[in-house]
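REQUEST ID: PR-0412
SUBMITTED BY: lab tech R.K.
PRIORITY: routine
TASK: structure prediction, single protein chain
INPUT:
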Amino acid sequence: MKVSIIQMNSISDKAANIAAAEALIEQAVAEEGPDWVLLPEHFDWGGGFKVDKLRNAESFPGGPAYTMARGQAIKHRIFVHAGSIMEKIEGEDRIHNTSVVFNREGEEIARYRKIHLFDITAPDGAAYKESATVKPGDKVVTYDCEGVTVGCSICYDLRFPDLFQALAEKGAEIIALPAAFTMQTGKDHWEVLLRARAIETETYVCASAQTGSFTVGNEQRQTYGHSLVADPWGHVIAKASDGVGIVSARLDPARVKRVRGLIPVAEHKVRIARS
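STATUS: complete
OUTPUT:
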């Protein structure tokens, strides 16, 4: 199974972002011939204020980001894991941060709404409050990719190993993590957390990231990039350079089985009672 991970620099221009994502998928298909393509978190939108996000959110099915991703799956007969799109919630003043997945025929086979929301203060004092705009999801989601089970997560979910354990318990052999990690947290935590989640779950972890800067009002915010694929032993087998681009890898489900045979952590797991 060959995968291509797309790294983008999305801005507050939805049409431009969708066009950029489409061009990168086309490039990946032409140069790499993948079976499965992963876009980053918020590939359709970066920056702006809450009112801008609400105005540019989509109802599913349909909407320009959803339609583009589905169209690429059909055109190239590939699986498209559409990182995350701003999903409109009728009657609410918040949106969902949602991954949508299409199979080779363009059928929607999974929809995952981000569970853990990014409400933090970065070391430089910048405050992030995703929950002011985004309503969390509550479902652990996996899907079948021609006999391989793929688990869904988004960005800040990476810091919560319980979700990854739940995905592994549902049979995940690959876990997708579209993200927009900040520069300050990314440089210290991104790779070590991805490798840890791969080692703990004995899965491939495929992480597509935003890179570069976007604008919130008069403030420029930086994202870390460094999209990568970690194997079930925790080795980084593919990693993007700086800037917009594509990184690809071949995944072997037999390696998942081999690693789990060597160190059967799922069999050894002891449920710890919480008093």
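NOTES: The radius of gyration is 18 Å.
REVIEWED BY: pending
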